[in-house]
Design brief:
4 domains, 19% strand, single chain, 16 helices, Ubiquitin-like (UB roll), binds iron/sulfur cluster, Rossmann fold
Length: 443
């Protein structure tokens, strides 16, 4: 079976959080394949540990994917602070005979080093055009866990688990391998927090992750971290702010200093996004009936809102609002057509991770989260049909069916982009809904 078919069969999706089906990404020809090992979100410890624990598998998957797309160069981006890991990977690359092909490139410890477009620039010097994706400049980017899953797919093993960091203001920080469909509460219980009602949970990293509205759900292939912080923590209060409150505060306090623009990573790459102008258009009623399409160039990195703005305002939220409205209106930003060129000041305007962590009030929680093997005890697994970008999977099992771990239980609908889903345990199917398949675990 070729790489694309194997990856499609195995239900591999972008494990960095985006959830884009990987077989679509690999169904291309490119000059470069890039492994995103930057893991720039504060407190996350997944990729750096996977790259150490499963380096051979990851390198195998990376090599196979790179050769498949015809890439001439395969580059791994990892922050230079992980010196021992870089050394290990370089040794493994040589031992495996990939030395002429795969190269490790150390990255600065800045945020957002893992933004796909920032990574493409840092590793290749190419700039992804506005409103475009890396393949436009001959690059395919995969993350460390995705590459591990590619390697497993080539050995016939589908995606039935995800790796995530349990972190934040908790007694027990750890990184776990969790079967897809495990109750989120079972994972959170390992944190050592006795009264979860006093805590908020961020699904993902502190910068780009969102507050979980409901912790009674199930773990998906996309989960990368659960960060627990007390509800009164300033980061939680800022994440919980409503659009209406943000709009009023923005209008009252934006001084048009343009710090949000001057530090915006996409602006610094030469794109036209200028969040201070989005603020101006809202605050002075200049947006008219159509929101500014330039908001679609925002990556959602949250730097403007969580770090740059001296007044603690919410420019990213205005971009989010614009993007949502534009999606409903089906209006798209029209690129200028002028190739972007990096702004000369960029080198001096990158945000050191430690400064960001301090600003977020997370320094006390920036601790190791060592990998821990856990025996999962819940008697049910709820496998969502939509854990990815694209059409939900169509169930191929019915109530009463006995399934084994790794068995396919949902297919990509005919003619659609999507991802297959698989049982993450042996058991009996006890519910089949449009949104999920529930399996009662049998040992
Ligand atoms: S940094 Fe804050 S105050 Fe300055 S222009 Fe941007 S939103 Fe307004
Ligand atoms: S969230 Fe803010 S800083 Fe990040 S890309 Fe969007 S506008 Fe720029």
């Amino acid at each position: 079976m070729d790489v694309v078919s194997a990856v499609r069969e195995a239900g591999v999706i972008g494990a960095g959080g985006a959830g884009f089906p990987t077989y679509v990404k690999l169904n291309a020809k490119a000059d470069y394949i890039l492994l995103n090992g930057a893991e720039c979100e504060p407190l996350l410890r997944v990729d750096q540990q996977l790259l150490g624990l499963f380096s051979t598998d990851i390198l195998e998957g990376f090599y196979a994917a790179g050769k498949h797309i015809g890439a001439e160069k395969a580059l791994i981006g990892i922050k230079k602070k992980h010196a021992a890991l870089i050394e290990k990977l370089r040794a493994d690359i040589q031992d495996m005979g990939y030395g002429d092909y795969i190269r490790v490139v150390p990255l600065k410890d800045v945020y957002p080093a893992g933004d796909e477009q920032v990574l493409v620039y840092e590793l290749t010097g190419r700039i992804v055009p506005e409103a475009s994706i890396p393949i436009q400049v001959g690059c395919v980017v995969v993350n460390a866990e995705t590459t591990l899953n590619i390697s497993h797919a080539l050995k016939g093993k589908p995606v039935t688990k995800t790796y995530l960091t349990l972190g934040g203001d908790i007694p027990h920080r750890m990184t776990l391998c969790v079967p897809v469909g495990t109750p989120v509460r079972e994972v959170l219980a390992l944190s050592g927090v006795s009264n979860l009602d006093d805590y908020a949970v961020i699904d993902g990293g502190p910068m780009m992750g969102s507050l979980m509205k409901n912790i009674d759900g199930a773990v998906t292939k996309r989960n990368k971290a659960f960060i627990l912080l007390q509800k009164e923590h300033p980061l939680i209060r800022r994440k919980a702010v409503s659009f209406e409150t943000a709009r009023i505060v923005n209008k009252a306090a934006c001084e048009q200093c343009r710090m949000c623009t001057d530090l915006c990573p996409r602006y610094l790459l030469g794109h036209s996004i200028e969040p201070h102008k989005i603020m101006r258009s809202y605050n002075y009623g200049l947006s008219g009936s159509t929101p500014q399409t330039v908001s679609q160039l925002c990556s959602g990195c949250n730097l403007c809102q969580m770090f740059s703005c001296p007044a603690g305002l919410y420019p990213k939220l205005m971009n989010d609002h614009n993007k949502a409205q534009l999606a409903v209106l089906k209006i798209k930003y029209q690129p200028t057509g002028v190739p972007p060129s990096v702004r000369a000041i960029r080198e001096f305007r990158q945000i050191p991770s430690q400064r960001l962590i301090a600003r977020l009030g997370l320094s006390d929680f920036d601790q190791p989260a060592p990998f821990r093997l856990e025996e999962w005890k819940s008697d049910r697994r709820t496998i969502l049909t939509s854990q990815h970008i694209g059409a939900p999977a169509v169930p191929t099992v019915k109530v009463g069916d006995l399934v084994v771990s790794g068995q396919r239980i949902g297919e990509i609908p005919e003619g659609s982009i999507g991802a297959a889903i698989h049982a993450s345990c042996n058991g009996e199917v006890v519910d089949v809904r449009q949104d999920a398949i529930v399996i009662e675990v049998r040992k």
